[in-house]
Design a protein that fits this description.
Length: 80
C-alpha cells in the first residue's frame, strides 16, 4: 500500500504536469515563443506557477477524496 507521502508526491507531480501542459506554450510563431520564454524566466512567473500548482493540487486532492468517498459508499451498499 502506498503511504501518504508517496500519494502526496504523486498528486504534486500530477498538479505540476497539468500546469505545464496548460501553460507551456507550443507556439507556431517564433516571436510569441521568444516572448513566452522571456516571461517564463521571471520571478513573477515562478510565483504564478507555484500558486497555480498549489491550486491544481487542491483540486486533484478534492477529486481523489470524493472518489474515495464514492468507493466507500459502494462498499457499504454492497454489504447491506
Amino acid at each position: 500500500m502506498t503511504n501518504i507521502d508517496d500519494l502526496q508526491s504523486l498528486i504534486d507531480q500530477q498538479a505540476a504536469t497539468e500546469f505545464d501542459v496548460k501553460f507551456d506554450g507550443d507556439f507556431d510563431n517564433a516571436d510569441a515563443r521568444i516572448a513566452y520564454q522571456a516571461v517564463k524566466n521571471t520571478p513573477e512567473f515562478k510565483k504564478f506557477r507555484d500558486v497555480m500548482v498549489r491550486q491544481y493540487t487542491k483540486e486533484i486532492t478534492s477529486k481523489f477524496l470524493t472518489s474515495i468517498e464514492g468507493i466507500k459508499d459502494l462498499i457499504k451498499q454492497a454489504g447491506e
